């Protein structure tokens, strides 16, 4: 018999299940709720629960839940904490810890778990693996409004037998009361409060006091368009070529099993067609599909491609959505109403009803790794989930990460290759342009200008890649050497001429540029080419050809990227200038020339992943050329035409280049051959972070660098490449180990030795499998 109890001004339903078995059970490791068979202990009418609470602490907190309240792992609760209250998630039943007074929860928000056992286990694993507080980790799986404690229930009212009686007897006096009671009586299963707005609240409360109606809560309905309503308007699929068919058949034969499939297909080889074919098969089984894409690739064009071909509305999940849309998509994926979910990295923690396949497109992309806070890698979390669920996961890329290539060589992943472009287009011809001692106009050599002209006159589109937005990288005084620097970071300000602002790309600080040099009053001049300036230069050289710029600045307004992409697609714009945004999976059939304006910038990157990242960007941007009937040319401007790596990449190709890099990493004892974690510390005080990390390094050496064990190397501390950011001094310590268990043991010991993550104004964090070395 359900009972209702008043709480906090609202109503919530408590279902009496005192005799029901406890659903989730405690384990040795509190992190995995599915292992072990402890019964929850209960006393004084309470069942004790471990609750994951957001906050900096690694531990779980024990609270009591009344024994007659339905409580299962994965439900949200409000609990008292200190003087306030906080929302948490029931994690696992607990023994009563006698030395503490255990407080009861204030309320249970959900009447079914929002997160199922698989996802809870995944979150527990991720908290352990990434050394991040469990309570914070759990939040990643909840839509933003659910994190804030939004109820998934609506308040509703239903009539009681005495109410029926009162209507039949006609004993009710007030006309309003009678009207409301009649309205509620029409729907025996209940009417939601929102449908009763016409009646004052007092009238409802009066009827409730009279015992004629009762409040209860009902689940919010999902509003997702279901598959059946959409089908019938799918675009036809092309016939797959031999390599595509082979890839599809290999995975299709193993749809019921976990397996990681690396689809290494050259740019334009039709990887997306392989995904689509497999997705259709999984949908035909009535199961769901998750597609993870890089941040920047999640354009309306991509979503349209899936919508048109699959004949359904995918749920799209990314951080730019408003809370309402996000919740709606979250609910639809969880209920199974949305069968296809496309999202950026955070979607990897989405609950599903019945997930049958995961696709990670452009798996090498750095945006899958969150660099601040909870430093998870979405690809790796996705692989964990696929294993647990026993479903296949496909990683696709023309330029796979060294991590994935190594896993192929260790036979952990299956390799599938698409060696040629689909539809018969040839691979582009990549050439180096030696710009030493050449006349340069706005960063363009005469040879490049001539090539652009030839391609434009032949009717093609030309794309210029420059990974620096803004007009100029900085403003310089020729007379005294003054350069505009950020007041808060050790970096130069970028001049954005369009809005006439100096901006720091590291901390966002902005200011008006000085009209003359603040030092000597001479005139300032721009130095270092940015995309804005390149756009100006091209407009001057090739008037009338139409030019479009794609960079982060161009994307600040909603729909702007879409408009720009449409102008490119329609060939209204013949020249395209852009940063990394260009690199991601666009399919512009008329692009015949791609120019890499400044390769040198990236050749001398200051971290060990620099060469890999540069190679991926070069090959990806080159892959935008010659995708249809026009042959593609790629010209790379450099002052280092003899650079060994650059030449190997261009002449032997990415696969060969990557194998060389892997050998170098093995030689140097670096990831992915060894496991790595970066400890970062920052503070307003210049010395404090260095001292803390030195202290840690000493401790690690003393306690853990036992030469009898497999070696553990500690490098640093060194100042971060960006040594000061937003007014804080930054240092880092790199820890390398031959095997992961050893690394994780060291990190755990370090954590328990250090305790809190904030000491005397110093913040420190652990980044496992670091990608961004800055
Ligand atoms: N079997 C096929 N027959 C004809 N055309 C195809 C076939 N497969 C793919 N295509 C076409 O080839 C082009 C490239 O395909 P797609 O975008 O799937 O490649 P991709 O490998 O995902 O590319 P990239 O990694 O460069 O973004 C598209 O226009 C697509 O429609
Ligand atoms: Zn700054």
Query: How large a portion of the residues is in β-strands, by DSSP E?
Result: 15-25%
Alpha carbon gyration radius: 30 Å
- Which cofactor or ligand species appear? adenosine-5'-triphosphate, zinc ion
Total domains, how many? 5
Instruction: List the total number of helices.
Output: 22
Structure classification: alpha/beta
Query: How far from one another are the termini?
Result: 59 Å
Kindly provide the name of the CATH class of the largest domain: Alpha Beta
Strand order of the largest sheet: 14-15-13-16-17-12-18
Multimer state: single chain
Largest sheet: 7 strands, parallel
What is the overall pLDDT average? 84
CATH architect. name of the largest domain: 3-Layer(aba) Sandwich
Number of strands: 36
Instruction: Write down the overall geometry.
Output: globular
Instruction: Classify the fold: give the CATH topology of the largest domain.
Output: Rossmann fold
CATH superfamily of the largest domain: P-loop containing nucleotide triphosphate hydrolases
State the helical fraction: 25-40%
Which runs of at least 5 residues are low in confidence (pLDDT < 50)? 1-42
Keywords: ATP-binding, DNA replication, DNA-binding, Helicase, Hydrolase, Isomerase, Metal-binding, Nucleotide-binding, Primosome, Zinc
EC number: 5.6.2.4
Binding site for Zn(2+) 2: 486, 489, 504, 507
Enzyme class: isomerase
Features:
single chain, 774 residues, alpha/beta, GIY-YIG endonuclease, Rossmann fold, 36 strands, globular, binds zinc ion
Structure overview:
By secondary structure, this protein is of the alpha/beta class. The protein folds into five domains: 150 residues, GIY-YIG endonuclease (3-Layer(aba) Sandwich); 66 residues; 196 residues, P-loop containing nucleotide triphosphate hydrolases (Rossmann fold, 3-Layer(aba) Sandwich); 181 residues, Rossmann fold; 94 residues, Alpha-Beta Plaits. A seven-stranded parallel sheet has the order 14-15-13-16-17-12-18, sandwiched between helices. Strands 3, 4, 5, 6, 7 and 8 form a six-stranded antiparallel sheet that branches. Strands 19-31-30-22-29-28 form a six-stranded parallel sheet, sandwiched between helices. A hairpin with a 2-residue loop joins strand 33 and strand 34. Helix 5 crosses helix 6 and helix 19 packs across helix 20. The N terminus is likely disordered. The structure holds adenosine-5'-triphosphate and zinc ion (ZN). Adenosine-5'-triphosphate binds next to helix 9. The site of zinc ion (ZN) has 8 residues, from loops. Belongs to the helicase family. PriA subfamily. GO terms for molecular function: 3'-5' DNA helicase activity; ATP binding; ATP hydrolysis activity; DNA binding; zinc ion binding. It catalyses: Couples ATP hydrolysis with the unwinding of duplex DNA by translocating in the 3'-5' direction; ATP + H2O = ADP + phosphate + H(+).
